[in-house]
């Protein structure tokens, strides 16, 4: 059977079985679903599927096995800088789970969880919680409000509040495996129609299988339970600016004990000047060098003065019955950071008038916002990558990696933009690369910069937590052979015909 015969037969069967609303093969749609912000360019897509239920996902997967079709599922396709809706490889059929599978199936206020389909966005969940009385709070990213909660969790995305670990606070999955079978995880694995504990108990009899479906291609998750936090009566943020790049070491040392003791319930957002200022407008120096040089120290200083920010900016928050009740906690944090002699305090009331700090307040408050999308406009041309390594909460190591990364960015003419999201023992470095994808030289430099950063941190024992689609195979090749062999063996067992997203995270 030729490739054309297979793909035509597959789509004809899907249209006959599920109706015309379940498919789209127009050239315009294929182009739109193949678009991304990667240096490697858009992907060729062979069509799009729009399932409306788990049963329809099963039907599509079974037909894909029959005809030998590769399906690439996504939820809402808003993971900008990591791949958007685009498949990893050319010639796949995109399964858009978010178009018709976008229902909030349950909000259980008593037990504090929701059950969602893939297309439920942060904005949709927030709006529903407000409609129901605003008594529960979800943890949000600072990315697009239309981003999918389920997809973000499966890609190990995170937020900034106490429930920041989105996959860690997911409970109970429904999965269509690559062979078309349905698997339920946790207490959902019980062979029963009554599952009162499915979304409240993560660990049940036997192996914990949930993690197999994070950053993998072993199946298609069609339903997920997500734990929610009781909304506090008041959220009071605090912010500090520091004047010098080298202050990062001391900042990390100051943050760690406050998180280790869980005195501060949120994570710390430790952002450099360009990460915050870059969301507020285009680079003032891009035109002069045509993107061949990083912004000057004088240019950075001018941006800091304009926006009232520092070389480093620290944000966190407390939850309590009222702003007044949290005064003692705020004073303790002020005294703690004041030990440095370099920290300038910005109170909650003033931070709201500084747009990048308002983004932090929204994130701590479980309110989706568009603020950080402005980073995409720092340079023209639509290129955007995220480099996402993590380092221990050790000030000396943090400064070592800052110096390393700044040098590599500068060598490639990129502007160093980073936010370190700090917990008690570990900080994730959200490194942004905004570049002109329409300029061949700048596009190539962005790709080279990403690869050099990845090799340099790996040589020091640090790996990335997520990866843009251009680099899935590259990063998998950095792992030990036993890890790669195990991933591929699981793929063979659960998806023997390799129909679900071949190449995703370098598997299959």
UniProtKB/TrEMBL annotation:
Instruction: Spell out the Gene3D superfamilies in the cross-references.
Output: 3.30.465.10, FAD-linked oxidases, C-terminal domain (3.40.462.10), Uridine Diphospho-n-acetylenolpyruvylglucosamine Reductase, domain 2 (3.30.43.10), Vanillyl-alcohol Oxidase, Chain A, domain 4 (1.10.45.10)
EC number(s) on record? 1.-.-.-
> Would the keyword tRNA processing be found if you checked this record's keyword annotation?
no
Annotated FAD-binding PCMH-type domain ranges read 38-231
Q: Name the Pfam families on file.
A: FAD_binding_4 (PF01565)
**PROSITE patterns cross-referenced by the UniProt entry:** FAD_PCMH
UniProt KW keywords? FAD, Flavoprotein, Oxidoreductase
Q: Name any Gene Ontology BP term.
A: lactate catabolic process
GO molecular function terms noted in the UniProt entry:
D-lactate dehydrogenase (cytochrome) activity; D-lactate dehydrogenase (NAD+) activity; FAD binding
Q: Where is the signal peptide?
A: none
Any keyword Membrane? Answer: no
PANTHER family found in the cross-reference section: ARYL-ALCOHOL OXIDASE VANILLYL-ALCOHOL OXIDASE (AFU_ORTHOLOGUE AFUA_3G09500)-RELATED, D-LACTATE DEHYDROGENASE
Protein name, UniProt field: FAD-binding oxidoreductase
Organism annotation:
Microbaculum marinum
């Amino acid at each position: 059977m030729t490739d054309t015969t297979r793909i035509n037969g597959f789509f004809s069967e899907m249209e006959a079985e599920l109706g015309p609303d379940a498919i789209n093969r127009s050239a315009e749609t294929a182009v739109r679903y193949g678009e991304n912000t990667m240096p490697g360019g858009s992907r060729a897509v062979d069509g799009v599927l729009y399932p409306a239920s788990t049963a329809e996902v099963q039907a599509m997967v079974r037909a894909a096995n029959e005809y030998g079709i590769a399906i690439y599922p996504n939820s809402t396709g808003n993971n900008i800088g990591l791949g958007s809706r685009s498949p990893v490889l050319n010639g796949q059929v995109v399964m858009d789970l978010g178009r018709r599978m976008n229902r909030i199936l349950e909000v259980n206020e008593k037990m504090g969880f929701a059950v969602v389909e893939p297309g439920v966005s942060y904005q949709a969940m927030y709006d529903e919680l407000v409609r129901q009385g605003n008594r529960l709070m979800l943890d949000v990213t600072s990315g697009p409000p239309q981003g999918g909660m389920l997809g973000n969790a499966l890609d190990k995305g995170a937020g900034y509040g106490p429930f920041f670990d989105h996959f860690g606070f997911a409970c109970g999955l429904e999965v269509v495996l690559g062979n078309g079978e349905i698997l339920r995880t946790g207490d959902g694995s019980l062979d029963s129609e009554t599952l009162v504990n499915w979304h409240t108990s993560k660990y049940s009899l036997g192996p914990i299988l949930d993690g197999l479906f994070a950053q993998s291609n072993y199946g298609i998750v069609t339903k997920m339970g997500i734990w929610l936090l009781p909304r506090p009566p008041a959220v009071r943020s605090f912010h500090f600016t520091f004047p010098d790049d080298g202050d990062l070491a001391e900042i990390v040392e100051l943050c760690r004990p406050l998180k280790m003791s869980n005195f501060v319930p949120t994570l710390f957002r430790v952002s450099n000047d360009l990460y915050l200022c870059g969301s507020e407008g285009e680079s003032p120096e891009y035109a002069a060098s045509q993107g061949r040089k990083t912004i000057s120290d004088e240019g950075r200083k001018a941006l800091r003065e304009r926006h009232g920010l520092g070389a480093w900016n620290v944000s966190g928050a407390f939850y309590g019955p009222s702003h007044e009740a949290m005064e003692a906690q705020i004073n303790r944090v002020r005294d703690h950071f004041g030990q440095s002699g370099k920290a300038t305090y910005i109170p909650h009331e003033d931070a709201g008038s500084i747009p990048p700090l308002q983004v932090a307040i929204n994130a701590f408050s479980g309110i989706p916002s568009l603020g950080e999308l402005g980073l995409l406009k720092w340079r023209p041309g639509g290129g955007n990558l995220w480099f996402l390594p993590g380092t221990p909460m050790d000030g000396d190591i943090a400064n070592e990696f800052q110096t390393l990364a700044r040098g590599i960015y500068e060598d490639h003419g990129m502007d160093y933009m980073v936010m370190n999201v700090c917990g008690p023992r570990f900080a994730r470095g959200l490194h942004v690369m905004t570049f002109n994808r329409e300029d061949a030289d700048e596009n190539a430099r962005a790709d080279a910069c990403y690869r050099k950063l990845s090799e340099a941190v790996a040589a020091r024992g640090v790996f990335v937590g997520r990866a843009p689609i251009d680099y899935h195979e590259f990063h998998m090749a950095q792992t030990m052979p036993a890890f790669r062999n195990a991933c591929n063996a699981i793929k063979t067992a659960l998806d023997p015909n390799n129909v679900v997203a071949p190449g995703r995270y370098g598997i299959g």
